[in-house]
Specification:
six-stranded antiparallel β-barrel, alpha+beta, six-stranded antiparallel beta barrel, 429 residues, single chain, 21 strands
């Protein structure tokens, strides 16, 4: 499907297509296999499956797209989560011969918990069922029943044959009963996902730049919101206030920078800021906490271990984190909750986590930049889970700096006398 889109929108060079023709002939394939335009790994071509995430750029007459071709095979669900985590829209392919499978339900669920706002289900290989409306309607009805249990926007259903090019770029006469959009019409009609760019300012710091003793700059990517010259910012976790004295981007000085831009910020005074810290607005800070709950997709072949300590990476911050509890797992076939002591590969469940140091969180549905995280096995360095924060317990006030503790100095008395007075003062306070 993606190969057909790339070919017919003019994104494939002549030498690329010629190499594709030679490769298909060498493998004895009757037609040119357009899937190999995105399946670049040798193992992918040998097995005719997608394993890794392949990113491709596509330009049409009206829009520009970045397409992440992700695997459908259950063994590579973790790669699907990786590609979908940054998506504004999703095209989910369903083989009309196989119908709705457990992996179809799993991918629907992942799209739901990731909050992808626009999802289309592409019922492909219609040519193999003689373009019958009954086959399309049967799968559509089954998917509508499944989606009714999920928090998802209304789905768009598209009937296609990618091999024949039906309803990919142009409407086909083979399915006169189909009144929906083509793939290209759907893509060009996508709306701007403004909710994915919340207004709250979040700038995770990647590094501190000190070219000389006169300059201290803080480099990072604006995760959300807009920062301007003269803005007052709050640094977390130090809770110090400062004003933006200068702002620079890739091409030089800026007056303001918005979500997605890489910036260098100089503050009007020295504050305690380093990698993993966060710059926010004083009146709109995230929750500072060491305990939260999240939905996770378990990616490791090793089962989760209750009470085990992992490394939690959230934005640019890394802290130790303990998996306190597995609250439940979702049954992919029914989306019902199951009580289970641990999670295994490709399981999706809700967990409770405690961290060794404070982390600064929003819920994932509100801000996926500060609401998403991964868990890493500190021994093997493998990513074992990807998580989406659902709720956080506030452990300290995020908007005001902590009060400085007063010091009372007692002198001129015996040790016992000082202790007695100290105890009395502490009790009175």
């Amino acid at each position: 499907l993606l190969g057909r889109l790339l070919l017919e929108t003019g994104q494939v060079y002549e030498d690329q297509y010629a190499a594709l023709v030679r490769g298909s002939a060498h493998r004895g394939e009757a037609t040119v296999n357009l899937a190999h335009l995105t399946d670049g790994l040798k193992a992918e071509r040998e097995q005719n499956i997608t394993i890794d995430v392949a990113y491709r750029y596509m330009t049409t007459a009206t829009r520009r797209f970045i397409i992440a071709d992700t695997p459908g095979h259950q063994q590579y669900t973790r790669n699907m989560v990786t590609g979908a985590s940054t998506a504004d829209a999703a095209l989910m392919l369903v083989d009309v011969q196989n119908g709705v499978t457990d992996q179809t339900r799993r991918h629907l669920f992942i799209c739901s918990i990731l909050g992808i706002p626009q999802v289309a289900v592409v019922l492909n290989k219609m040519d193999l069922v003689d373009y019958t409306e009954a086959a399309f309607a049967s799968i559509q009805a089954e998917l509508r029943t499944a989606v009714s249990r999920l928090q998802m926007p209304p789905l768009t259903y598209i009937a296609t044959s990618a091999v024949a090019g039906d309803n990919v770029m142009t409407r086909t006469s083979a399915m006169p009963w189909y009144a929906g959009p083509t793939i290209l019409e759907y893509l060009e009609g996508l709306s701007a996902s403004t909710w994915l760019n919340p207004p709250e300012l979040r700038i995770p710091i990647q590094c501190v730049v000190r070219p000389d003793m006169t300059f201290r700059g803080y480099a990072g990517r604006v995760a959300s919101g807009t920062v301007r010259l003269g803005d007052e910012l709050l640094a977390l976790p130090s809770r110090q206030h400062a004003v933006v004295a200068s702002l620079s981007g890739v091409d030089g000085p800026l007056q303001e920078a918005s979500s997605g831009e890489n910036v260098m910020i100089e503050l009007d005074r020295k504050v305690d800021v380093s990698r993993g810290h966060l710059l926010v607005r004083p009146r709109n800070a995230p929750t500072s906490t060491q305990a939260f709950e999240a939905l996770v997709c378990w990616m490791s072949e090793a089962r989760s271990v209750r009470g085990k300590t992992y490394v939690l990476r959230q934005t640019t911050r890394e802290v130790s984190a303990t998996l306190v509890d597995v609250m439940y797992r979702f049954d992919i076939a029914t989306y019902h909750r199951e009580d289970i002591p641990s999670l295994s590969a490709n399981d999706i469940g809700r967990v409770a986590v405690e961290t060794g140091q404070p982390v600064f969180l929003d819920t994932y549905r509100h801000n996926r930049a500060t609401g998403g995280f991964i868990l890493i096995d500190s021994v093997t360095n493998d990513v074992v889970a990807a998580g989406m924060v659902t709720s956080a317990t506030r452990t300290e006030e995020s908007t005001e700096p902590a009060r400085e503790a007063p010091v009372v100095w007692l002198t001129g008395l015996s040790g016992a006398g000082k202790s007695t007075i100290a105890d009395a003062v502490a009790e009175r306070l």
